């Protein structure tokens, strides 16, 4: 089949890399794609916000399956537009994608259907939000309602930090635009975070290997939140018993709830979870593959990804389609100096070829571009360096061995990815 992947980041590079291994894929395209994908797919520079234009392009090129990587096109209704054109797409329609598009919708859905999550309050004005923070104290969690590229969450350890975050989101600054005009204020949950991604066609649900992301920019989980500084899989914090409990008390109830609400969900559902002993609560839902969790999960996938994604899009998913390799994967994100704040672009990257030649190592491009034959930085998160081995410890060693071969001025990365697993 002819397959199109929408997006150009590290997650999409990983999806393209795995789809390229499928014997079912005849021709692979990526819009807009990126330098890392060029040997694997034909990259087409098009605007991913022009949904009608994308659908017409897909029709012209006889695309059998479109895989939507980022959340923004899903929330905007790309799958709806494609379906109206008779095109198959992997990912939820707009009404179902609201589970990520609106934190308020997501929390209220969980409350209505008794899905375990943190206690919360929705605030529509800065004064109301500040008063609530003063009443509750810290630590406390502030979340912008809408999409904020993974950066609209502040875990405030002090009241001062919480009030500053509210000023940024709801005050003069409006850091996230309309996404921060309403906020959710949540209780701070103690425990260990874990990400469980699931394939679903709306009826059948098949979990992937649990992964753990590293949100904070510095070692030891210090500094501001980012889109993710690295990930590993499998995450030992989630035992088989806890995985089953998550499916029974969180994933299945939410998929069923969305169906009841007239918002049937298919594609990948991402559950960000907080685990404390045998208690599991939802931190957040995403309507797509996680980034950088995908870079750690898909290298361990042993099925045919094109077959599975097509089955999700056509209501024909079976658990036996989803298979896993033994072993572990570790992904280390190399970011631009200054990230998650402002950072320079256009800095030359060296050592990519040398790192990519290492056994069981793949370098996924998150924010790069090619200028006159040279790969340069073009984003906050630049590369996801992933290695696979028998154990997390060996995969980590292999990944950092590859990181050491790659250089660009100001490069920053955490040195402790997978520390929680290794501390066990």
From TrEMBL:
Family of this protein: Belongs to the GARS family.
Protein name as it appears in the record: Phosphoribosylamine--glycine ligase
Annotated Pfam families: GARS_A, GARS_C, GARS_N
Domain ATP-grasp: 107-314
UniProt GO molecular function: ATP binding; metal ion binding; phosphoribosylamine-glycine ligase activity
InterPro entries registered for this protein in UniProt: ATP-grasp (IPR011761), ATP_grasp_subdomain_1 (IPR013815), PreATP-grasp_dom_sf (IPR016185), PRibGlycinamid_synth_ATP-grasp (IPR020561), PRibGlycinamide_synth (IPR000115), PRibGlycinamide_synth_C-dom (IPR020560), PRibGlycinamide_synth_C_sf (IPR037123), PRibGlycinamide_synth_CS (IPR020559)
Pathway the protein acts in: Purine metabolism; IMP biosynthesis via de novo pathway; N(1)-(5-phospho-D-ribosyl)glycinamide from 5-phospho-alpha-D-ribose 1-diphosphate: step 2/2
Named cofactor requirement(s): Mg(2+); Mn(2+)
Enzyme class of the recorded protein, top EC level: ligase
Gene3D superfamilies: 3.40.50.20, ATP-grasp fold, A domain, ATP-grasp fold, B domain, Phosphoribosylglycinamide synthetase, C-terminal domain
KW Ligase (keyword) present: yes
EC number, as in UniProt: 6.3.4.13
Biological source species: Acidaminococcus intestini (strain RyC-MR95)
Catalytic activity, as annotated: 5-phospho-beta-D-ribosylamine + glycine + ATP = N(1)-(5-phospho-beta-D-ribosyl)glycinamide + ADP + phosphate + H(+)
């Amino acid at each position: 089949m002819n397959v199109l992947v929408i997006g150009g980041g590290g997650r999409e590079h990983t999806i393209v890399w795995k789809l390229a291994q499928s014997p079912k894929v005849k021709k692979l395209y990526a819009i807009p794609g990126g330098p890392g994908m060029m040997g694997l797919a034909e990259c087409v520079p098009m605007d991913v916000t022009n949904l009608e234009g994308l659908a017409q392009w897909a029709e012209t090129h006889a695309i059998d399956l479109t895989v939507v990587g980022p959340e923004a096109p899903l929330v905007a209704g790309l799958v709806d537009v494609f379906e109206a054109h008779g095109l198959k797409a992997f990912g939820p329609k707009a009404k179902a994608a609201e589970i990520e598009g609106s934190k308020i919708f997501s929390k209220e859905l969980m409350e209505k259907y008794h899905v375990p999550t943190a206690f919360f309050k929705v605030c529509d004005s800065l004064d109301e939000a500040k008063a609530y923070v003063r009443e509750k104290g810290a630590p406390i969690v502030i979340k912008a309602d809408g999409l904020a590229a993974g950066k609209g969450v502040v875990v405030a350890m002090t009241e001062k930090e919480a009030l500053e975050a509210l000023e940024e989101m709801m005050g003069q600054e409006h850091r996230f635009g309309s996404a921060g005009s309403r906020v959710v204020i949540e209780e701070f949950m103690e425990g260990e975070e874990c990400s469980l991604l699931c394939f679903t066609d709306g009826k059948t649900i098949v979990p992937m290997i649990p992964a753990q992301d590293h949100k904070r920019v510095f070692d030891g989980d210090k500094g501001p939140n980012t889109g993710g500084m690295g990930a590993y899989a499998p995450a030992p914090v989630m035992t088989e018993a806890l995985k089953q409990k998550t499916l029974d008390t969180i994933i299945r109830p939410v998929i069923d709830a969305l169906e009841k609400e007239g918002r049937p969900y298919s594609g990948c559902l991402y559950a960000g979870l907080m685990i404390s002993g045998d208690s599991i609560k939802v931190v957040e839902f995403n309507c797509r593959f996680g980034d950088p969790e995908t870079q750690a999960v898909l290298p361990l996938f042993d099925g045919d990804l094109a077959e599975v994604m097509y089955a999700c899009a056509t209501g024909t998913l079976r658990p036996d389609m989803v298979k896993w390799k033994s072993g572990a994967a570790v992904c280390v994100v190399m970011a631009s100096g200054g990230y998650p704040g402002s950072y320079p672009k256009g800095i030359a990257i060296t050592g990519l070829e040398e790192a990519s030649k290492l056994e069981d190592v793949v370098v996924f491009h998150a924010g790069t571009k090619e200028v006159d034959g040279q790969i340069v930085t073009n984003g906050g998160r630049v590369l996801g360096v992933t290695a696979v081995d028998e154990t997390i410890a060996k995969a980590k060693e292999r990944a950092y061995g590859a990181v050491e071969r790659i250089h660009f001025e100001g490069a920053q990365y955490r040195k402790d990815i997978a520390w929680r697993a290794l501390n066990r």
